[in-house]
Each structure stands twice: as C-alpha cells, then as structure tokens.
TrEMBL record, chains A, B:
<dbReference type="GO" id="GO:0055088">
    <property type="term" value="P:lipid homeostasis"/>
</dbReference>
<dbReference type="GO" id="GO:0033540">
    <property type="term" value="P:fatty acid beta-oxidation using acyl-CoA oxidase"/>
</dbReference>
<keyword id="KW-0276">Fatty acid metabolism</keyword>
<dbReference type="Pfam" id="PF01756">
    <property type="entry name" value="ACOX"/>
</dbReference>
<dbReference type="InterPro" id="IPR037069">
    <property type="entry name" value="AcylCoA_DH/ox_N_sf"/>
</dbReference>
<feature type="domain" description="Acyl-CoA oxidase C-alpha1">
    <location>
        <begin position="284"/>
        <end position="445"/>
    </location>
</feature>
<dbReference type="GO" id="GO:0071949">
    <property type="term" value="F:FAD binding"/>
</dbReference>
<keyword id="KW-0274">FAD</keyword>
<dbReference type="Pfam" id="PF14749">
    <property type="entry name" value="Acyl-CoA_ox_N"/>
</dbReference>
<keyword id="KW-0576">Peroxisome</keyword>
<dbReference type="GO" id="GO:0005504">
    <property type="term" value="F:fatty acid binding"/>
</dbReference>
<feature type="active site" description="Proton acceptor">
    <location>
        <position position="430"/>
    </location>
</feature>
<comment type="similarity">
    <text>Belongs to the acyl-CoA oxidase family.</text>
</comment>
<feature type="binding site">
    <location>
        <position position="144"/>
    </location>
    <ligand>
        <name>FAD</name>
    </ligand>
</feature>
<dbReference type="InterPro" id="IPR012258">
    <property type="entry name" value="Acyl-CoA_oxidase"/>
</dbReference>
<feature type="binding site">
    <location>
        <position position="183"/>
    </location>
    <ligand>
        <name>FAD</name>
    </ligand>
</feature>
<dbReference type="InterPro" id="IPR055060">
    <property type="entry name" value="ACOX_C_alpha1"/>
</dbReference>
Amino acid sequence: MEGVDHLAFERNKAQFDVDEMKIVWAGSREDFELSDRISRLVASDPVFRKDDRAALGRKELFKNTLRKAAHAWKRVIELRLSGEFSALEPEAYKLRAFVDQPAFTDLHWGMFVPAIQGQGTDEQQQKWLPLAYRMQIIGCYAQTELGHGSNVQGLETTATFDPKTDEFVIHSPTLTSSKWWPGGLGKVSTHAVVYARLIIDGQDYGVHGFIVQLRSLDDHLPLPGITIGDIGMKFGNAAYNTMDNGVLTFDHVRIPRNQMLMRVSQVTREGKYVHSNVPRQLVYGTMVYVRQKIVADASVALSRAVCIATRYSAVRRQFGSHNGGLETQVIDYKTQQSRLFPLLASAYAFRFVGEWLLWLYTDVTERLKAKDFSTLPEAHACTAGLKSLTTTATADGIEECRKLCGGHGYLCSSGLPELFAVYVPACTYEGDNIVLLLQVARHLVKTVSQLSTGNKPVGTTAYMARLEQLLQYHSDVKKAEDWLKPNVVLEAFEARAARMCVACAQNLSKFSNPEEGFQELAADLVEAAVAHCQLIVVSNVYALSLLHKHLGDFISTGCIDPKQGSLANEQLRNLYSQVRPNAVALVDAYNYTDHYLGSILGRYDGNVYPKLYEEAWKDPLNDSIVPDGFKEYIQPLLKQQLRNARL
Amino acid sequence: MEGVDHLAFERNKAQFDVDEMKIVWAGSREDFELSDRISRLVASDPVFRKDDRAALGRKELFKNTLRKAAHAWKRVIELRLSGEFSALEPEAYKLRAFVDQPAFTDLHWGMFVPAIQGQGTDEQQQKWLPLAYRMQIIGCYAQTELGHGSNVQGLETTATFDPKTDEFVIHSPTLTSSKWWPGGLGKVSTHAVVYARLIIDGQDYGVHGFIVQLRSLDDHLPLPGITIGDIGMKFGNAAYNTMDNGVLTFDHVRIPRNQMLMRVSQVTREGKYVHSNVPRQLVYGTMVYVRQKIVADASVALSRAVCIATRYSAVRRQFGSHNGGLETQVIDYKTQQSRLFPLLASAYAFRFVGEWLLWLYTDVTERLKAKDFSTLPEAHACTAGLKSLTTTATADGIEECRKLCGGHGYLCSSGLPELFAVYVPACTYEGDNIVLLLQVARHLVKTVSQLSTGNKPVGTTAYMARLEQLLQYHSDVKKAEDWLKPNVVLEAFEARAARMCVACAQNLSKFSNPEEGFQELAADLVEAAVAHCQLIVVSNVYALSLLHKHLGDFISTGCIDPKQGSLANEQLRNLYSQVRPNAVALVDAYNYTDHYLGSILGRYDGNVYPKLYEEAWKDPLNDSIVPDGFKEYIQPLLKQQLRNARL
C-alpha cells in the first residue's frame, strides 16, 4: 500500500523528540534546513536517478556521470541566480554530496582548488582560481604513482629546471613513476597539480607541486608529450567506476617556471632554491582539515548503513511464530542487537568526534597564524589516529550491516554493496590506516619517554600526565550500573591505553637500535595506538561494546578483573534494551531521503517486499522473456543427443 | 621482461619441497595431476577468458556466461569421448570450478540433481536423472522465498492435493511467498525442485519438494500460470551477476502427483500421507555433505586471496630506502606479517579440516546405513559450526588480503574485489552464520547439562568428558617456546571453550523459562560456540593468533594469566619469522594458474607493474581518447561564460 507507514508502530515507541535530534545530528538548525532543502531538490530531479546504474556497462555509466555532473553544475548556478555566484558555497558542496555519485568534480573542488589556495602565491591564486571557480579549466590532483602511494617522499616523477628557457621539464623516468589513481585524470581534467621531484642543477630538492596543463582546451586531446588513460574497473558495480581514475606519463613536458606552486618555497630566475617566510607547518594544518572531513564522512557513511539495517531489522520477521501469529521482528533478537546497536552508537559517536575535530582545526589554524606550533604534533597524531579508527570501523560496520540484512543485503537494491565498495578506499587514501597508527604509536612512545623530562603532554594525550596514578589504577566497579558512570568508563580506557603504551616503551628500550625495535614490535604498537584512539571516542554503548571486544587488553593490563568485565557485559545488555524502542527514531534523525539512502530495505515507509519485487523487473535481463543467447547457447544443449551417456 | 621470474629470489629461500607440498594440498598425487591438467586446459582456452568481464553491462555479461557454460559442456563431453560419458565425473566438476564463473550449471549439477538423487524414489530417479545427466532438462532448486530464508519451516508456497485429478496445485498465496534467489531460475532453467507446504484436505503437512516444469522445452517461454524473472544486480562487478538468480510465482499450477519427491514420505492416490521406512535423518547426511563442500571451498577462496597478497607483498616495496637503495619489501614489515601469516595458516588449517569433514561424512553415512543415529547430533552441530567459522573467517580474510595490497587491491585487475563479492554469500546461504552458531550453542549447553546423567559426549565434544579437570586447569606455560607444544595450545582452547559453555549453562539456569534465557543470552552463547569451533581447527600459528585476538576469553576464564598471554604473543612473532622465508613457496604449493587466480598482483612471475600498466588500456573507456559525452557535458562547462561570478 502506497502512503502507509509500515514503521509507524516503531516510531510511536520513541522516547525522545526526533525533530530535536535532527538538529543535533545536523549541527545546527541552519545546517539542518540547508541539508533538508538540497537533499529534497536532488531527490526530486529525474536526472539524479541512481537505481539504474548498477547494471550499466562502464561506458554508459561514465557518460551518465558526465551528464549528472553537468546538470549538478547547472543547478548550482541556478540556486545562486539572484545573488553572486560561488561554487564553494555550502549549497554547492551539499548538492554534490547528495547527488552521491563520485565524479571528477570531487577532485576539482576538493583537491585541485584547495591545493592552489594552500600552496599557490597570491599571484598564482589570482591567475588560476578564477578559471577554476568558473570551471573554465578542470583540474585534478596528480600525486600517487604506480609504484608509490604511502611513501610520498619516494615519488619518482621529475621536474628539472632549465635555466636557459626558464622552464621546468616534467618527466616520467620509469614505468613505476607513471601517475596512477588520480580521480578525474583519466578522461576529463584539462589541468593537474602534479607532484614531482624538483631538480636544479643536478640536485634533488624533494617533492613539490606544479600546475600542468594536460589537455587542449579546444579539442580535449592530450598535449604533446603527455599520455593519459583510465586505469580500469574498480571494486563494486557503480561505486568508483563512475570516476575516471587515471594513468599519466610525461615525456619531457615543458611548463613555465611560474607554474611551480611557490607559496612555501621558490625557484628564482637564476635557479636558486629559496624558502619564503611562510611556515612549512601550514601543510599540517591542511592535513588536519582533510582528515576532519574524512572523519565527518565516516559518520555519514556508517549512519546510512545503520539506517538501512535498523529499519529493515524492524520490518523483517523470521522464526518465533506461535500458533500462526506474526514471526519475531529480527531487531528483537539479542544477537542482532549486539551487532547493530554498537554500530548505531558508533555512528553518533563519530558524528560528535567530527564536530570536535572541526573545533581542533580552527584552534590549530589560529595558533599557526600566531606562530604557535606547540600543539601541532599532538593534533597531527590525533587526527591521524581518528582517521584510521573511524574509517576502519566504518568499512567493517557497513559490511556488518549488509550481513545483518540477511540474503537481501547482497542485492544492489539494498544499497549496501555500493555503499561498501564506494567507502572502502577511505581506509587506504590520505594515509594507509596501519601506517597512520604507527605514526600515532611513535607520538605516544615519545610522549611517554618525555614525561621524565617534565614535558607536559597536551590535547588528547593529557591523561598521560597522570601516568603514575593510571599505573596504580584498578577499577572499583562493583555492580553493572557502575559502568554507566562516564568517568568509570573513561578511566578504564585511559589506564588500558597508558599501560599498553608503557609496555611498548619498556619493550622498545630493550633494543639497542630503537628503529629496529620499532619494526619488531610494530604489531603491539599498533594495538597501543588503537587503545589510545578508542579512548578519544569513548561514549556509553560504544565504549562498553569495545571493552567487551578488547576484554583481553583490559584484564591483562590489570585495569579491571574478569568479574568487572562480565558486569560490563551485563550492563551492555541493559543498554541494548534501552536503545531498542528508540532504534528506528534514532536513524530517522539522520533525515536521509529515500533517494540518498538508495535502498529498498531502508525505505522510510518500511514497504520493503512489494518494492523489492517491483524493482526486480527493471533489470535489463528482464527486457525480454527469453534471454539473449538462448538460441546459440541453451537450445543446443537441450536438443543435443548424447551417445555413450552413462547414467 | 617476459619470461623472467621476479620472485625467484623468494622461491630460493624456501626450506621445504614445494612439489611435495602441492601433493599434500591437493590431497593425493592423483588429485594433483587432475587439477593440474584441467586448470591448464581451462587457462589455455580463449573462450574462458575472464579479464574483460568486469566492465561489461549486465546483458553482455550474462550472454558471455551462457557461452562459457555451453563451451564447458562441450569440453566435458570431449574429455570423455573415448569412454563412457558422465557429467558427474571429477573432470567435469573440476572443469566447472576452474572456469570460475558462477552459472546455472552450478545449481543444475550441485542442487537439482542431488535433490532428486537424495529425495526421489527409485522410479523418480529413473525417470528424471537421465534427462538431467544429459542436460535435456536444466533444473534449479527453488526453496528460498522473498519473505523466508533461514526459517525453511516458514515457507508459504502451497502444494494442495486435488484427489479429483490426482494432481498437486502449486500456488503462491502471498507476495512474500514468491520464490526469490534460486540461481539459474531467472532465465535458464526448464525445471525446478520447488519446496512448498503440502496441503491435503485442508491439513498442512509441512514443507516438501516437488519437481515442476517451468518453461516450454520448445520455445523456452514460461508455462501457463508461471511468472519468472531475474531479481536484478548483486554485489560486485561480475561476481554473481553472471547468474540469473530468479523470482518465481505460481498461479494454481498443476503437476501430477508423482512429481512430489517421495523417498521419505508419500501421498497415495487416495490422498493419504504416509512415511516410508527410509529414515528422515538421511536429510542430515546430505547437510553434512553440503557443509563439508562449503568448508573445502572456504580453504580454496581464502588460499587464492592469500596467494595474491603474499606474492604482491613480496613484490611491493615501500619506505625504508637508505642512500638510494631498494626500499623494503612490504612482506618484511611485522604489521604485514601479523595480518597476513595468520590467514596463510588459516587457509592450510581449513584445507585439513575440509579433508577431515570428508571422513566425517563417510563415517556418518555408514552409520546411517546401519541405522546408528548416535553421532548425528554432534556431527550436525560440528559441521554447522565449522561452516560458520570458516566462511566468516574467509570472507573477512579476503577483504583483509585486499587491504594488504594497498590501493591497487581496489582495482578489479587485482582479482580481490571479485573474489570477495563472489564469496560473501557463503556467510548467508546454507544457514546464516549466526543462526548456525546458536544451533551449536544449543548442542553444547545440552551436552554439558547431560554430563551429570552419564551421557558421554562424542566427537568434537569429547573433551567435555574431562570437564572437572578443565575447570581446574591453569596453563603451566613458563616460556614462549612452551606455546609450541600442540597439547599446551589445545588444552588452553579446551579449557576456555568448556568454561565459556559452563558459564552460559549456569546463566541459563537462572531463567525460569529456558527459551527466554536462550534469547536473552544469545550473544554470549554465540561466543561460546565460536570458542568451541575454533578448538576444532587449532593449529600452531592459527591458534596463537586466535589466542591473541581473543585474549580476554582466555584470561577472564582463568585459563592463562597475562604473562602467559604475552609469551604467546612473543612466540607468535618468532613463528612469523619462521614463516617469512617460506611464504611465497607456501602459496606456490596451491598450484593455481594465473588464469584461475585472475590477478595481476598475484602473478606467478611477480611482473606486476608492467602488466598493470598494460591492462589499464583495455578498459572500454580507453577505446577513444576523447570520452563519449565530451561534446554534450564537458565542453559546455569549459566554454561557459558566467556572469556575477564571485571570486
């Protein structure tokens, strides 16, 4: 039945005001209203339809992306018709986000423009930004190479200064130096910020950024010396196959000297390499910003999956029918709750961590302006750790939500396969998650080792100042409810993290070569880093489910005893019962349109089965009753007369 | 360079005889030779090419599958030309396996034929099997419905006996009773074994199997009263989208009475429901067989992923270069080893568990013949648990291997996205993994509770007979090497599992309604079941990595103390160092062809980067330099003149 809300009985159970929670989730009333307006606008526009894309071949899929990107740009311009125009407004950003299909524009606005803003001189900004803002040029970010991702300092592309012509010669000296992965590069971008080793007079000055034109603005053909293509299919049906991730090689391509991004360091007409008085640490400010965005995106991706799984778990019934009555709602099974509710809690926790990181970014930026670099190492480690923690948990969480939907979660119409495939690269890009955790561990070990010299730990490592106390700590939990006190939970997490760090530091001190020790103990160091990062995010359900999952850490470090561990588990079960009546309302508070969710299982009205059935018939295979290939490949089998058949 | 073995230096390090290990992995010399011959035959046949399928649209992909299936059938017949012919020979099975593309034939041979063999009377077998063996009919297995998967007893399709015409009327009374998911149903099958509630004279006799013709053998059109279609796109690029999983509804379709599968129970001409003297427990024998196959398949899937990740980890270098020398091989990083080597160990462990299950199946079958049902409940619980354990570990393991390959693991040409997408349904089909663990838990709790009545636990639960001793147990490990003794490891796992079971049993006894207690404690029961299943699989590296992962269980149950836990971890690091030089040889022993692996990262010769580069150009997007859609959607952006632009 159209128009009927099959989940109304769930919504009536809610014990809080959903409309208020929507504001909390959005961040402010203004943010809520903007998201609400733009998401509806996108949902109602047939060009932005998503349900047909999974069955398309690569070419059709890509052309469809170009169409959506051009249409999105048109809508952005229309939205601002009455006023001045800027594609960097929140409206434009939200619109691209709700279109929900990776495209070259993500890299143009998200990487190319910010790279020029951050690393270009005022003059360079004045020249290039107006073109980019109006999309008279389209740019991408060409850093990663076939042979180098995480290790940016290992990039091989060269930019050799030629003093005779006042140019740089951009060149790919090896196969592995081919640029590989940049989104928007393969088929669309006219320009790129290319990262290459700066070579002057035979000397290597390390990796720098250069603005390079790739394609003609007339006929779109690659310029001489430039070879470009798409790197081929990636994970998932549509997912990132809407994006032209590219391969690019240079054969001695010349660009004017003033196309090196020179805000931090310059090459003079005479070929002298000089630093400006702009602090190099600015780069870290940008990194904090980018990672804050990634954490915010993690909460969005996880909340979408949780929304789908929660609603469908309320719709779906299986087993437990007595005397022909209704079967049990799947959401009422404790095994379902123990897997789903910690993810629901994580989505909210990550949302608030994202907000806090935004504050941290503002704080860091202001300090940088005042040339105060004191909090930078900690802020850098903290955002690295949170990026790793939230993206890993989100990728795993989306897949868990898919499994929580049973067999139907495997259908593209559930929305979950695409959500997973499009999300998982977040575990790798902007710093591989394990490499990042090792950076965090390095910072933690340093923090511990400097305590004796009176260095005060700052920010999220401040608890280390109480190290003596934390090493003495033993939880005084006596009954399950004690685990509800935020301080009790927090202290247990602090003590665990502190002890794991100290244990690592002690083990490291046994090595005469510290670097060797670091390599040898890397796996333990990663676990200590995880313990520290989890501590930053602690919140009730989330924390207790983690405590249960990592019980070994807590008990083996002597923070809590087995009895207290089982009390935590008991309390967790109580909390699940409290979450249960609010579950559907908690995911309603995300305020996602059915278009954005892109999931029949997660439909707002819960009308799952009729719509699943209806959707099936749209597959291209159902265009004809007898499939293409029947005459060639099926009929001959059926008509074949086999001799010698043994039965 | 073609022909050069870039991994030769790794292969030279091996400390064991790879050729001997190939025989061990294959099971016997005969099995090895058969696999080797058939896999090469498939690899050398251009029709079986796989590298182009990811970029195809649904229709082309499906037609390509029909072509491969027809060609595979032709090759099977040719292989047996000189002798008698049977498609059930190992050759035929292997050939389909190495073609490595899900197709309707999997269900025809794997489900339709066995259903008739297992549940059909002799007469029914004589009528239907010859047709099926020659593929003069093509069948599928129509059990799952839109609204019911795990709960088979909840199926809604009805088969009502009409004594007037001596027919059954097959009918879909509701939308949710539509058959949904059966592979091969959507576009190909001419027949199906349909599961439906048997209704005689208004009385419901539960779910039974019926042979139903679906399509005309002349024009392939659905017969009157039958509506069939494909259910649409699923997870992954090609993956299961090569399969026509279908939807099917019946509108009072009539079949003769003798098309009910009547080996176990019959309906007479008069409409009397009678049981034959064939034991119903036969069904469980089949279940043991199917699950044994699933465990064997798990080791194959996991070993493919591990093979790719191990070889590429040896090829790939990142960081650690000093003075311009080579960077460090990724496989030398401890974090990489601590993630990869336990999976390598798991693949081998699962292989041997699969062999053992084959023995168990033989044993169960012989006992069934002798009407000895005593070991059946334990065998049933054991295979359920191992199915759950190995498929979950394999799905997670494949994704972990993908991440271990860094960014390139996200490319379809790595082979890993497809391997994951095609594998994950194994966690859901033939019993949802969590539902299965609850069955195991039920069996364990029952076993514990019956100890006092003198019931001797059998099979994998035999250790429960030593319950008193296991409850007293405390590990006597004093140094890291102690963890190398198999008995030491085994006892720790036994004690942990026993204590977790006893704790569950004790908590259950606090509930006046046992079923309510079972629901409430479901999450703990699942963990106890996992502990028991892991015990069955224990082997060195595998066990110690599990012990580290589930340290909380071991310490909180008092089996080991924290010091012993950290000794286990130390020993694990030692073991990794021992595995390291043998890693590549250990995956070579799987003897997979490059065609079967379907991965550029996992190529035998390690020649990864040139081939990745070469492969990229095959994507359809690279057919033209300027992409389709440029004139409509890109050029207008670039040429647009925006007024009012704010910069």
